[in-house]
Specification:
By secondary structure, the protein is α+β, with helices and mostly antiparallel strands. It has one domain: Glutaredoxin (3-Layer(aba) Sandwich). It is 24% helix and 19% strand. It has 4 helices and 6 strands. The strands form 2 sheets. Strands 4-3-5-6 form a 4-stranded mixed beta sheet, with helices on one face. It has a two-stranded antiparallel sheet with strand order 1-2. The chain is globular and about 35 Å long. Pfam families: GSHPx. InterPro entries: Glutathione_peroxidase (IPR000889), GPX_AS (IPR029759), GPX_CS (IPR029760), Thioredoxin-like_sf (IPR036249), Thioredoxin_domain (IPR013766). Keywords: Oxidoreductase, Peroxidase. GO terms for molecular function: peroxidase activity.
Length: 156
């Protein structure tokens, strides 16, 4: 099994087949519009703009599980516009618990967090995936997108 085996929906409910990402470096982030880390959208967009033509794809998965900081699609869309986000923002999901999206269940099994925990601790946890669909690394919310650039460039 790999990341390419999953299907999801975009924010506007269109099908999104992860197999279209084959041969790309992918950064998957659980995002929220009303979080102290929301400013990371700016850094994520900068990375995407700089490296998308070389094969970087960033996928934002809105999640409302942490202090209800991602309330609705209108808020997500407004936040996306405010930060000039052009990378794909997918449908709102859960990342923990029995309702966790299958993509996140897979990601968490591939790369555990602090103290080998699978649980996502907060918004803006990041997973870096290589061109072959292998989950390379998991980054905590406190890691700024700019700090990932070297690792992304190495994979590109």
């Amino acid at each position: 099994m790999s990341i390419y085996d999953f299907k999801t929906k975009t924010l506007d409910e269109q099908d999104f087949d992860m197999s279209q990402l084959k041969g790309k470096v992918v950064l998957i982030v659980n995002v929220a519009s009303k979080c102290g880390f929301t400013k990371q959208y700016k850094g994520l967009q900068k990375l995407y703009k700089k490296h998308s033509e070389k094969g970087l794809v960033i996928l934002g998965f809105p999640c409302n599980q942490f202090a209800h900081q991602e309330p609705d699609k209108a808020t997500i869309q407004k936040c996306k516009e405010n930060f000039g986000v052009t990378f794909p923002i997918l449908n709102k999901i859960e990342v923990n618990g029995s309702g966790a999206d299958p993509i996140y269940r897979y990601l968490k099994k591939q790369k555990r967090g602090v103290f080998c925990s699978q649980r996502i601790k907060w918004n803006f946890t990041k997973f870096l995936i290589d061109k072959n669909g292998v989950v390379i690394k998991r980054f905590s919310p406190t890691v700024d997108p700019e700090d990932l650039e070297h690792e992304i460039v190495m994979l590109l």
